[in-house]
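Page 37, continued from 36.
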């Protein structure tokens, strides 16, 4: 009998190959052999009738054909013998009419050399299990196959979300739908739809049509029919849809159509830049609550989910509320000591309205107040301490820091941050049950429908694994191995994170070969949101068509180079350095010919200089020679100027500066004595 190996939560025979599944299942036992996927393959569904599962089986067959190129087996004519069943899918019970936070999402998948069986308590588990099966399919010397395996799987956290802002830059319906496809592929189950903000009111209200008609500068908003389409599309993929209507701040777009809602008379206009703006809901007037009752009633009818997000963040409390005489009188009359207590008063009133319409209120962590009902869910964007504090107070919570994609964190940084880590680790077992998971957040100040996919994927898949997989699954190298494979599959689903990158580079290169520009772009990433704001004035109408908008947040090329530096793989390191040094002359004509690229000329020069520094450091290492102190000081100062983002003064980060700095440090180590 072969020895079993424990690998990141897998149990595998010594002969088994590492699995490619992402997220890692809760329990895996690998066996010997494979199940062939060929033209005889047939999958069938048994169990209670469910429209979601029939649609899921159709998508499964379609995706299997994309992966293998093998057309699905045609249905036999009546009277003909049924072909043998290869994948039997059995759902043991019906799902809830409205998908719920506490719904069972487990499944079991057993694959032998002859057949496979997928079973689950309800449709959600079947949806997840089909995605796992598709990720197991791979090519081999004798055709496509799935390895023999037994998987018992369930999520660690019940709330595994992605928030997308559609207010600052419009995201058309097809863009939203393909994000849902990608979410389903990595078993995420909450789509948080940020629909209103200072720069746009992006949903149709039939009761108050001025909200969308005067609350957008481009007349782009989702109709109620489109909202219903998104909700249905998401449900078919096991995803809940939670809308966010930000209040009492971030409401300039509301006030553009209905200034009567504001604390003072304005005038109010749509904002077309970024930041936190004055303009606060008047929470002292009964007419405000009468409006909210009607509006929330209309919106909750569109969104079946039990949670309703009211925002509550970054309220410009020190302006309108502080200047208003009638607000001051109201606070005195109601014995409210400050604006925090005034917002808490508002949230209590708002929670009553939300509850009246059958929902639980959700908000950013600024709304947290000990006096609020404890069925409110707190979304912590300010970190793990805030999340833990809420749990101690009795609130349910989810974590969103550091899962802010516009912060340009690398996948590994987000991957190693656990909703139950750090401050939450000291919570009692009961308090930990109040933390339901987390959400990745995509704010779109610097994102268009063309670049959204590249900002969201594949990094979000790493966080999806953190939310799903056992706590012990923390091997970063293996995560990246599987993430690279998943990234390809997401393209098959219609995502554009890789294609759009190449397309935008080709557009910038114009008639020139795109290769040299890509060589440069592959070692860069954008600075974070704050970094862009500090360097240039942007508006909603600023074209996002420069190299900073094109380059991706993370680079497999730099990851490979960094590993080669860590392992001191000298041939690989030297080849990369020689390529980057030579690329300076190859890319310069392209940079000079395009006005959008001329700002990158000094960046390209710095990349070339860094390559030279790396080569010199490698020479010292290979010659077992200590570099002069003056050389070390000069190179370290230069590299520090780049890694601290003081040089170059652009909106991109040169990713190879840090590993080349490590190469310099290695050269500075005492020479090794000869053997």
């Amino acid at each position: 009998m072969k020895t079993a190996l424990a690998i990141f939560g897998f149990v595998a025979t010594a002969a088994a190959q590492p699995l490619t599944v992402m997220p890692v299942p809760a329990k895996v036992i690998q066996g010997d052999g494979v199940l062939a996927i060929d033209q005889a393959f047939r999958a069938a569904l048994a169990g209670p009738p469910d429209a979601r599962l029939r649609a899921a089986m159709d998508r499964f067959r379609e995706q299997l054909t994309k992966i293998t190129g093998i057309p699905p087996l045609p249905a036999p004519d009546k009277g003909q013998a049924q072909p043998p069943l290869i994948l039997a899918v059995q759902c043991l019970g019906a799902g809830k009419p409205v998908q719920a936070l506490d719904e069972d999402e487990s499944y079991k998948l057993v694959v032998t050399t002859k057949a496979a069986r997928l079973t689950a308590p309800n449709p959600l588990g079947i949806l997840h299990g089909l995605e796992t099966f598709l990720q197991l399919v791979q090519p081999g010397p004798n055709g496509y196959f799935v390895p023999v395996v037994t998987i018992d799987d369930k999520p660690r956290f019940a709330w595994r979300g992605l928030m997308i802002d559609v207010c600052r830059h419009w995201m058309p319906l097809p863009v939203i739908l393909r994000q849902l496809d990608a979410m389903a592929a990595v078993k995420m189950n909450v789509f948080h739809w940020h629909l209103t903000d200072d720069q746009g009111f992006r949903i149709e209200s039939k009761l108050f049509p001025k909200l969308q008609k005067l609350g957008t500068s481009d007349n782009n908003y989702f109709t109620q029919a489109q909202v219903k389409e998104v909700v249905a599309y998401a449900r078919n993929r096991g995803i809940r849809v939670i809308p966010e209507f930000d209040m009492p701040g971030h409401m300039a777009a509301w006030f553009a159509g209905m200034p009567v809602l504001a604390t003072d008379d304005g005038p109010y206009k749509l904002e077309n830049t970024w930041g936190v703006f004055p303009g606060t809901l008047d929470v002292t007037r009964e007419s405000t609550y009468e409006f909210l009752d009607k509006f929330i009633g209309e919106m909750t009818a569109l969104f079946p989910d039990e949670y309703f997000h009211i925002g509550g963040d970054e309220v410009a409390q020190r302006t309108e509320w502080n200047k208003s005489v009638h607000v001051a009188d109201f606070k005195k009359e109601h014995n409210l000591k400050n604006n925090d207590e005034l917002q808490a008063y508002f949230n209590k009133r708002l929670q009553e309205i939300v509850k009246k319409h059958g929902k639980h209120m959700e908000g950013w962590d600024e709304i947290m107040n000990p006096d609020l009902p404890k069925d409110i869910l707190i979304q912590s964007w300010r970190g793990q301490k805030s999340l833990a504090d809420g749990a101690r107070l009795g609130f349910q919570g989810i974590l969103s820091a550091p899962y802010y994609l516009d912060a340009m964190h690398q996948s590994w940084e987000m991957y190693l941050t656990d909703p139950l880590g750090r401050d939450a680790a000291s919570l009692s077992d009961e308090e930990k049950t109040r933390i339901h998971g987390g959400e990745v957040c995509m704010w779109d100040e610097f994102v268009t429908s063309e670049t959204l996919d590249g900002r969201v994927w594949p990094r979000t898949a790493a966080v999806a694994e953190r939310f799903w997989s056992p706590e012990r699954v923390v091997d970063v190298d293996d995560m990246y191995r599987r993430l690279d494979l998943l990234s390809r599959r997401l393209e098959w689903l219609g995502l554009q994170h890789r294609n759009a990158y190449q397309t935008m580079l080709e557009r910038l290169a114009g008639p020139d070969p795109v290769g040299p520009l890509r060589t440069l772009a592959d070692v860069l990433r954008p600075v974070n949101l704050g970094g862009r704001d500090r360097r240039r004035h942007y508006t909603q109408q600023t074209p996002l068509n420069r190299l900073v908008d094109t380059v991706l947040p993370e680079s497999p090329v730099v990851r490979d180079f960094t590993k080669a530096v860590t392992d001191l793989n000298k041939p690989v390191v030297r080849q990369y350095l020689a390529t980057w040094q030579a690329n300076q002359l190859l890319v310069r004509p392209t940079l000079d010919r395009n006005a959008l690229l001329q700002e990158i000329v000094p960046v390209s020069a710095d990349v070339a200089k860094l390559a030279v520094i790396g080569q010199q450091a490698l020479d010292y290492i290979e010659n077992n020679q200590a570099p002069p102190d003056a050389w070390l000081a000069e190179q370290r100062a230069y590299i520090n100027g780049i890694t601290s983002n003081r040089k170059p003064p652009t909106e991109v980060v040169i990713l190879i500066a840090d590993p080349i700095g490590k190469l310099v440090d290695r050269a500075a180590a005492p020479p090794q004595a000869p053997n």
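The first strand starts at residue 4 and ends at 7. Flag for discussion at group meeting. The chain is about 40% helix and 15% strand.
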